[in-house]
Each structure stands twice: as C-alpha cells, then as structure tokens.
C-alpha cells in the first residue's frame, strides 16, 4: 500500500520492438532511477494490448514482450520494489476500458493527434480518410486511460507526443466520476510528467534515434561487436586527425555525454578540441558505453536463456497489480449497475411504491465552483446529472420546472451521450442520464 507520502508513478512500454540505446537512455534508465526514490511507488507495465494496434505479427509481439521484460530487469529494475506486470495479465483493464469507452464522447477521440495524422496522410494521398484505420487505433486513448485510472496513478512520465492522451484521460475520469461517483470520486486525475533533463539521443545520422529512421544503435542485440560496429558508422564531419573538433556540434559527443560523468565529458571535449581523430573518438565512445552495458548484457543473456524466470516475475507482478485492480473493478461494476440479481430484487430502483423512499433532487457545487443538481431514485441511484450553472438560482429554477414539463417531447438526445431539455425549440439545459425513460417516469411521480 502506498503511504500518503508516496507518489504513484505509472508508465507503459508498448511491446512492438527491440529496445535500442535511445530507449535505454531516454526511458529505461530514468524510470529505473525514479523507482528507487523512497517517495515513489512505481507501476511499470508491458503494454501488450497496445502492441496489437501497431503489429499483427504474433511472433514479433511474443518476442518483444520477452526482450523488453528482460531488458528492464537486466537494466536494474527491482521487481520487489516496482509493480512490474504485463497489461494482458490484468483482465480488469479491458473491462474498465469498456466502461470508459461508454462515457467517452466520440468527438473527443476524433481530435486525437495520432488518429488525425493518419487521416491527414490518407487525404494527402487521395485515399478514403479512414483507410486502414482500425478501431484499435481510433480508441487507443481510452485504453491508455484505463491503464492509468485502473491504478490511480498520480504521475505519468511520457514523451511529449503523449500529453494529449493524459488530457483525455483526465477528461474521461471526470466524466466517469460525475456520472457514477455520487460524491465519491473513483478516479484520481493524473498529471503528465515531461522530463526535460532526460537525454534524447541522436542516431547514427544525427536525427533523433528512432526505429522509424533506421538509425539506431542496438542496446544488447549483436553483443559488444554489434555495439562497436554501429558506433563506427556514426556520421561525423570530415576533419582529419590533428584538426580541432567542435564537441558541441558533434553527435558523438552528445552520445558520450549521455553516459559519462561531467568530468569524463570535460576530458573528452578537451581531447576533441586538441585534435583527437574521429576513429579514436569512436573507440573512446564505444569503451565508455560498453563499460555500462557489459554487465547488463550478461544479465540479459542469462534471463533470455531462462524465460521461465521472467514469466515468474511477471506473474508475481500481475498478482500485486490485481490486488489493486480487482477490488476497484468490483466497486465500478456495482456503480454501473452490474449487481447481483438478488440485490436488485431486494432494492428495486425508481419507484416510490417499491423502494419506500421518495425520489429527490440534490443540488451541489462541483469542483469548478459551479452549481449542479442530481435526480436520485428512491434507492439513491443517480438518474440524472444537470449541466453546470454559474448561479444557484438557475439550477433551482430548472429543478422546480422539470417535474411539470412534458418530458416525452422535452428531453432530447444530443447524439453524444447527453440530453437536452427543451422548451419549444429553446434548449434550456443539458443533462446526463443513462435511462431517459426512467427519468420521465420518476419526474412524473414527483409531479403527481
Ligand atoms: N502509449 C504509450 C506510448 O506509446 C504507451 C502506453 C500505453 C502508456 N499505456 C500507457 C504510457 C499508460 C503511460 C501510461 O508511449
């Protein structure tokens, strides 16, 4: 259990490739360092459901799950400290994903950058806008929201391209809290964490190291030889040995600095300025990186040779994670109405006659200081949530008027999960309700 002093930090690693040096310096190493801080309760997981969006090659997905798990463990992740698990071992995640999908406006997903970029590419090459776009790609921000909200993470360290997904996660969490929370919030609203200190490594050609640019330096693949031969292919300028080199503009130096202490970097810079040849500089870079990687590579090889050890660690991680996700999903199932049938009979919703208690309006102030009200059934179930009003009086007027209105015509779906309350053609309010017929019936009872 995290104490009140700890911050839960959660992040996912999509299992669709083999980690390279850029992944190590940019994500693996800083995440493992963060997990060692006493005030951090880290949840790191293999996002294998996400991998299916990008990759339909089962062998590659299987291999990547194994390689990524082995890499993080070899790099020093302590599974005793960190809750380290595979997304697909947590059945509560897809279940939550569906609950969230049902409160997520489609219009919100239409605005997702990743989806819009795919549409733009299609339009640019005069194809159908949605050509090749699956529902997985379209709704993947909802899956990501489920990953995060399932464990009530406070902080989510991600790259800049993921900021919008965190905003969407907060939006979805708020909707769910409002719809089903009845005063208690199920979900913490997570904050994005962008670390500007973290190294973004240049690749062989000087652009950002990335599989899509085919300019990566392998982490463990190909051993020390593979590392060396990649480093020897780093592009440099044409200055000859003996000529002074400009360290600042050299990718080689940027790579060196990502692994060296500041004293080591200073000495290397001096050597470059004094005319060290590029061939020798590459040898120095190789030796410095190899010093860090060699012991990890041995651990990696050992783990890859014993996959059942990895499996055991991940199973234990899933057990720890599910100790949190299972009780939360039980509460959520209850909240959305997935209750034991016997319980429903004992406490039917809606009708005065059956429940004994009267339905009622409850007004309250929301997080933004605005005024809203709920209509509760006799058993306390929320039937309707009003939109926010700046003045309490506006909410009061609507609350009074509702029971007398002919809602068979005045309560109209807006097509996006909400309902409009209309007076003739004028929209006097928008409300959220899951069962408009029950609302109509309950208000009729109140009026009568
Ligand atoms: N979408 C993230 C990425 O591409 C990976 C990811 C999946 C993730 N679920 C997550 C990251 C939850 C943080 C939290 O990088």
Task: Write structural notes for this entry.
The structure is a single chain. With 448 residues, this protein is α/β, with parallel strands linked by helices. The chain has three domains: 7-196 and 306-336, HUPs (Rossmann fold, 3-Layer(aba) Sandwich); 211-296, Tyrosyl-Transfer RNA Synthetase (Orthogonal Bundle), CATH 1.10.240; 360-447, PH-domain like (Roll). Helix content is 49%, strand content 13%. The protein has 19 helices and eleven strands. The chain has helices at 21-35, 48-54, 58-74, 92-101, 106-110, 113-124, 135-138, 140-149, 163-180, 223-232, 251-257, 262-273, 278-305, 307-336, 341-346, 352-355, 392-401, 407-410, 436-447, and strands spanning 7-14, 40-47, 83-86, 155-157, 191-193, 360-365, 371-376, 382-386, 411-413, 419-423, 426-432. It has a six-stranded antiparallel β-sheet, sandwiched between helices. Strands 1-2-3 form a three-stranded parallel β-sheet. The longest helix is centred in the C-terminal third of the chain and has 30 residues, at 307-336. The two termini are 51 Å apart.
Low-confidence spans: 346-355
End-to-end gap = 51 Å
Reading off the top of the CATH hierarchy, the class of the largest domain is best stated as Alpha Beta
Largest sheet: 6 strands, antiparallel
How many β-strands, per DSSP? 11
CATH architecture of the largest domain: 3-Layer(aba) Sandwich
SS-based class: alpha/beta
Bound molecules: tryptophan
Mass-distribution shape: elongated
Compute the average pLDDT: 91
Indicate the percent of residues in helices.
40-55%
In terms of DSSP E residues, the strand content is 5-15%
How do the SSEs run, as a string of H and E? EHEHHEHHHHHEHEHHHHHHHEEEHHEEEH
What is the name of the CATH topology of the largest domain? Rossmann fold
* Rg calculated over all Cα atoms: 28 Å
Any idea what the CATH superfamily of the largest domain is called?
HUPs
- State the oligomer: single chain
Give the tally of structural domains. 3
- Which strand order do you get reading across the main beta sheet? 6-7-8-11-10-9
């Amino acid at each position: 259990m995290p104490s009140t002093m700890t911050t839960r930090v959660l992040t996912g690693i999509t299992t669709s490739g083999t980690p390279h040096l850029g992944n190590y310096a940019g994500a693996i190493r800083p995440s493992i360092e963060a997990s060692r801080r006493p005030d951090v309760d880290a949840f790191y997981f293999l996002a294998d459901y996400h991998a299916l969006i990008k990759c339909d090659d089962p062998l590659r997905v299987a291999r990547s799950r194994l390689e990524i798990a082995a890499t993080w463990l070899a790099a020093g992740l302590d599974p005793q400290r960190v809750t380290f698990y595979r997304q697909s071992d947590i059945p509560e995640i897809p279940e939550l994903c569906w609950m969230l999908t049902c409160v997520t406006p489609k219009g919100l997903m239409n605005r997702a950058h990743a989806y819009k970029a795919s549409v733009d590419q299609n339009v640019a090459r005069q194809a159908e806008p949605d050509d090749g776009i699956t529902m997985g790609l379209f709704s993947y921000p909802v899956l990501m929201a489920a990953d995060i909200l399932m464990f009530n993470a406070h902080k989510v360290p991600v790259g800049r391209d993921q900021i919008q997904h965190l905003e969407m996660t907060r939006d979805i969490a708020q909707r769910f809290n409002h719809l089903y929370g009845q005063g208690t919030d199920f979900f913490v609203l997570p904050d994005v964490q962008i670390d500007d200190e973290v190294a973004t490594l240049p690749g062989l050609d000087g652009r950002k190291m990335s599989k899509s640019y085919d300019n990566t330096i392998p982490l463990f693949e190909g051993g020390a030889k593979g590392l060396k031969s990649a480093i020897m292919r780093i592009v440099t300028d044409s200055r000859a040995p003996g000529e002074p080199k400009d360290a600042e503009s050299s990718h080689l130096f940027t790579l060196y600095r990502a692994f060296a202490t500041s004293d080591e970097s200073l000495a290397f810079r001096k050597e470059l300025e004094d005319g060290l040849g590029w061939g020798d500089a590459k040898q120095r870079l190789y030796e410095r990186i190899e010093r860090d990687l060699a012991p990890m590579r041995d651990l990696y090889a050992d783990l890859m040779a014993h996959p059942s050890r990895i499996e055991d660690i991940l199973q234990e991680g899933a057990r720890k994670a599910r100790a949190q996700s299972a009780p939360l999903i039980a509460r959520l199932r209850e909240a959305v109405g997935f209750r034991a049938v016997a319980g429903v009979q004992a406490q039917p919703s809606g009708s005065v006659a059956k429940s004994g208690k009267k339905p009622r309006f409850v007004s309250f102030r929301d997080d933004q200081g605005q005024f809203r009200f709920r209509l509760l059934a006799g058993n306390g179930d929320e039937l309707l949530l009003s939109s926010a009003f700046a003045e309490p009086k506006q909410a009061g007027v609507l609350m009074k008027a509702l029971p007398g209105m002919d809602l068979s015509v005045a309560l109209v779906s807006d097509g996006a999960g909400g309902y409009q309350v209309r007076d003739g053609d004028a929209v006097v309010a928008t409300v959220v309700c899951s069962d408009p017929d029950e609302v109509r019936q309950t208000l009729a009872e109140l009026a009568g």
